[in-house]
Amino acid sequence: MQQSLSVHDMKAADLYQKYSVNLFAYLRLHLASREDAEDMLVEIFLAALENEKLKDLGEDYQRRWLWRVAHNKVADYYRSREKRQAVALETVTDSMYEDEELAPERLAERGEDYARLYALIRQLPDIQRRVLELRFVQGMRCREIAELVGKREGNVRMLISRALNLLRALYQEARRENGQ
Q: Which pTM was predicted?
């Protein structure tokens, strides 16, 4: 016998459809493995399902609530990281290496690239970091960002463009310095 979805479950499903991609991108930016990001995304939406009051709140509040939960879960992840047990390499199966992207060398390179990029993002001016986060992590449109930061939409577009160009230049300079 199939149960029908409650209004609360449908609301949570709508939230998932609307925000899961951007939340997952945020989690991947802050977590070392895709699996940890996927697990944490599930935890975020389980928390949304468990929050009976969330369905009665406005869309903007729901979005901010989800982002706050994501931020808190990432913080909790790093707080509890020292308590986690490491898995011995001997227990990892050979099937992991069938996909070249999962090979340890590629994973290490990608991790180094993410760390380098994250360090470069921290070098950007505050307003540029903020508009990039709002646009690419939270998925907001330039119009929404403009309202939030108190600038005109054209200025926000210019800020994003300049931030990306500066980030690209910093990244290429860092690669040249490292002989890549």
A: 0.44
Cα(112)–Cα(28) distance, rounded to whole angstroms? 14
**What phi, psi does 90 have (nearest 5°)?**
-65, -25
| CATH number of the 100-180 domain | 1.10.10.10
Chunked mean pLDDT (size 10), the chain, 180 residues:
49 81 91 89 89 83 91 87 58 57 73 82 89 89 93 93 90 80
> Exposed, middle or buried by CB within 10 Å (0-12, 13-18, 19+), for 29?
middle
Locate tokens 């991947």: which residue? 28
Residue in this structure with the two tokens 């960002």, named with its chain if needed: 145
Max CA-CA distance within the chain? 64
96 Cβ contact partners less than 8 Å away, ≥ 6 residues apart: 102
Please identify which residue in the block is written with the tokens 């994501």.
70
Q: Answer whether 65's CB lies under 8 Å from 57's CB.
A: yes
Burial class (CB in 10 A: 0-12, 13-18, 19+), 112: exposed
The percent of the chain in helix, strand and coil, each rounded to the nearest 5, is 80, 0, 20
Residue 47, H or E segment: helix 34-50
